[in-house]
Write a structure and sequence with these properties.
This protein is α/β, with parallel strands linked by helices. Strands 1-4-3-2-5-7-6-8 form an eight-stranded mixed sheet, sandwiched between helices. Strand 2, helix 1 and strand 3 form a beta-alpha-beta unit. Helix 1 runs antiparallel to helix 6 and helix 5 packs across helix 6. It is globular.
Amino acid sequence: MSAYGDGDASRPMNAYGDGSRRAGAYRGGNGSRRTGAYGPTELLVIAKEPVTGRVKTRLCPPFTPAEAAELAAAALADTLEAVLALPARRRVLVLDGRPGPWVPPGFEVVPQSAGGLDERLAAAFGGCTGPALLVGMDTPQITAALLAPALAPGAWDGVGAWFGPAEDGGFWALGLADPDPALLRGVPMSVPETGAVQRHRLVEAGLAVRDLPVLVDVDTAADAHRVASAAPGSRFASAFGRLTGAGVR
């Protein structure tokens, strides 16, 4: 997981070109997109509003801040679309920033809490009342097939947690049968050992942990190239190709 919410008092125009208000009790705008079937699990997406200069700053250079925000917007759109297709009891966008018409129907939007990323993740799970699975916005290559094991009938039978490790040592997905915020508080975030510490915390708590596939998350331009190649039909790949001529600069 990346550090999604380093605040900035000035809220410039986001990459979608809207100036909508800060997240609150907001639900996605009207539209005809269909959502996946009902399921027992709450699905959470933790993300930052793709505002120029506040997202994907590690992509700069070679990308400009505006280009990095465009890539972030595409990654978030791909992620939300993937989550919409999955069976869920509730779909929540846990947002640092302001929602707007770019939020698809079928999502409830709640603001991220204050504090470090561990506290914000803990608070996101604390708002759940049953099994919950959380993903970030840095893996636009996620698909229903990748997440299917954690959402299949019986996915929580004898399972306390689902864990999606990231190649850089973090994690891209975390599912908890009993979403206890204490399982996340105090875990060091955005460091190479984040995933190992988080998984150990789950095991130490006595949870049976099952793993999802290892994925690359987008932190650098090289990561972006790999992810775009892995998801050639995605918005992210389209934006990346348009900005680079299909190659890392």
